[in-house]
Amino acid sequence: MECKSLIVQLGQAGLRPCHVKKAINGMKTSTVADVTSKGKEFYGLIKHFQDKALLDNDPYFYVDLCDDGSPKNIFWADGRSRDAYTKFGDVVMFDVTYMTNKFKMPFAPFVGVNHHGQSILFGGALLENKKEETFEWLFEHFLKCMFGKYLKAIIADQHKAMGNAIKKVFRNTRHRFCAWHIKKHEQEHIKPYVSRYSDFKKSSTKWVNSDTIEEFETRWEVIRDKHRLEYNCWISDTHNQLIHWAKAFLKDVFLAGMTTSGQSESINSFFDEFVNSKTMLNEFVVQYEKAVESRRTAEEDEDFKTMNSRPVLSSLHPIEEKAGECYTRKIFDMFKKEWTEATSNLTHETISKSNVEIKYRVGQLKFDKTYWRYVIFHFSNDVNVTCLCSKYEMDEILCKHSLYVMKKRHVDTLPSRYILHRWTLNARYK
Q1: What is the pLDDT of residue 412?
Q2: CA atoms of 288 and 81, how far apart (whole Å)
Q3: Is the pLDDT score of 426 beyond 90?
Q4: What pLDDT is stored for residue 270 in this prediction?
Q5: Region 213-229 average pLDDT
């Protein structure tokens, strides 16, 4: 009688007949009580999304079922998350290290960054496993859900199956390894070398932070030979995947400031406030939505503060004034930090000059000149400045070195080409 009731409930929840059949097939190998319990939880999850669809004009929900009718893979996103993706879906952080629910299904949130530099959630998934075909299934549905709009970059773990799936589904998307995971692995694997060689830590740090590809490869050869690194050790294997993590190879990729090592960790700790290891599936999606609402409240709060406050300027210069007018409050704070450094702590030396450009080396007097950055100011109708640190290319906020040179060259305002639309209030409201 209970199974008959369950079949009716699943049908009422909108499950197709073939899926209802799968749900009751499990009775052949499981007890009626087990199947009914798992089925009821699954019914609750389906019913939740069905109820949400009455209030949301543009939700997306898809479930992949096991032979016994239990959910194998689940992906969902509400209308507001899909809309947010159309505005801020250039870079996404994807993480599957979080596993907090009753069935121990890996939880995989898709996390982006809004116009305030805050983390926002584009969608969530509960997965059966971490196999390549599972990631392919998920990424294909994510792409379909997000109107076929491809990412510029995805930040994810150093996971072979995941990397293969990213390559297949997001064909022109740059895959950057998560800095937090790299750091975590690095601390574990370089310990023997740090204890054996007193200069290893300093040399490896300098190697990782190389500005150019030539520098990176030259320093690698020195470290490899001097410290006798095995060809199959973690460091060598990681070197072989350098296009996914080495700064020198990612300087042309916009990452929206998401490479900070604490970003992934903070997302995980954020969900800890809402779920635990005993959270039921249907309750999990409810708690996920509470987490989403919490993020949206934080975003609305920042929108209000940006609209109803004036930027506090550190100078009277029109470059800073223009930035204050255009950027959201939090992004202006980031710009202001660079501007303050540019106008108070930096100096320069002229390296070369021609009819088309002038090249400077910019830095602080108290630092060795090996840490100074090369900046080229191009003579043209439009202001055109490039810096070897590539902060602008990666964050789309001008660096202190470029700002120093612009001020020195008497540039009288911040050119519109250097103000990224996604860092302004208009990104959300126009």
Answers
A1: 92
A2: 13
A3: yes
A4: 67
A5: 89
Say how many C-beta atoms besides its own lie within 10 A of residue 306's C-beta: 19
Residue 297 CB coordination number (10 Å): 10
Residue owning tokens 């009819």: 355
* pLDDT at residue number 121: 92
> Where do runs of H (alpha helix) occur along 247-280?
262-272
Closest CA to 78 of 278, 290, 266: 290
Of the candidates 74, 20, 80, the residue with the CA atom closest to the CA atom of residue 49 = 74
Sign of CA dihedral 183, 184, 185, 186: positive
Q: What is the pLDDT of residue 1?
A: 45
Tokens read off for 49: 């999304």
Of 122, 126, 135, residue with least CA distance to 81: 122
Question: Which residue do the tokens 């470290």 mark?
Answer: 223
Q: Are 64 and 137 in contact (CB under 8 A)?
A: yes
Residue-range domain boundaries for the chain = 1-55, 58-308, 318-429
- Give the model confidence (pLDDT) of 382-419 as tens digits: 899 999 999 999 999 999 999 999 999 999 999 999 99
The crossing angle, in degrees rounded to 10, of helices 17-25 and 2-12 is 150
Average pLDDT, the chain: 85
Alpha carbon distances (Å) from 134 to 108, 143, 155, 275, 292? 12, 14, 18, 23, 24
List the alpha helices (DSSP H) in 190-309.
Answer: 191-196, 200-208, 213-226, 234-239, 262-272, 281-307
Q: Are 37 and 47 in contact (CB under 8 A)?
A: no
Please tell me the distance from the alpha carbon of residue 429 to that of residue 100, in angstroms, as a whole number.
35
Residue 347: pLDDT above 60? yes
Would you give the distance in Å from CA 103 to the centre of its chain?
26
